[in-house]
User: Fold this.
Amino acid sequence: MRWRDLPSLSALRAFDATARSGSFAEAGRLLNVTHAAVTQAVRGLEVELGVALVRRAGRTVALTGAGEQLARALDDGFGTVAAGIASLRETESRRVVRVTTTTFIAETHVMPRLPEFWAKHPGIEVAMSPSPAKIDLARDGFDMAIRALSDGWVEGPEEEIRPLCRSQVIAVCAPSLAAQGLHPQDMPWVIGADKHWELAEVGGTGLDVTRLKRVEVGSPHLEMSACRQGLGAGTATDIICRADLEAGRLIKLPLTGLPVVTYAVVLPRGPRRAAVEAFADWLKTIF
Assistant:
């Protein structure tokens, strides 16, 4: 298609609205412009095509033979465009919202509350993909990430960060481990996949990390489970531990110096679906 050979879209829209309504004034109301602007656009289209398209009939206009031919073509063309856009919107509205986050955030905080979201938005499907890895959202096809960000985080040029809340990192262990009367320095510690980060956290409390007995369970998904079973102490945010603390499955150790993190929604920059915005907005209500 050679766009340069076609009249302007605004002129074609003005003629299409006139042909459908039979009036310059009504076409103006449909397009939210003055009837004079519609009249001028249609007259300009006639000049460009070198043929009369409409003729006045009192307060209305009638189509010439050439006008009827063009009106049929535009009805087919604009109808195809409208159908294509409607189909695209329907397809996009049904597409699953893909969310990447850590295992702990998904398991302890978001997934137990998903029924609340679906009660408000029954037509939106959500797929959680727990992973501790940093993911390129646009490249890997994710709509958003939920992350715990340390102080000093900076929003990148390709992402938008919406903070959800601040949460204190705490040290915890099972009551059975605490009952042994060990000082935290002498307890075994469950150290996850991000060893350097977790050791730095523990070291910030004043404990000598080089002397710690470390328990490595090999999977981030099992770290809190290992703590609950008394295999070792560990660190996690208050949000992740809250239910276990309230149920008595874990207790808080009297250690200070642990950091505070920012939970945030990370979105790729650019246009996004209404379903993605709805889920991002809902997340702000549960943190």
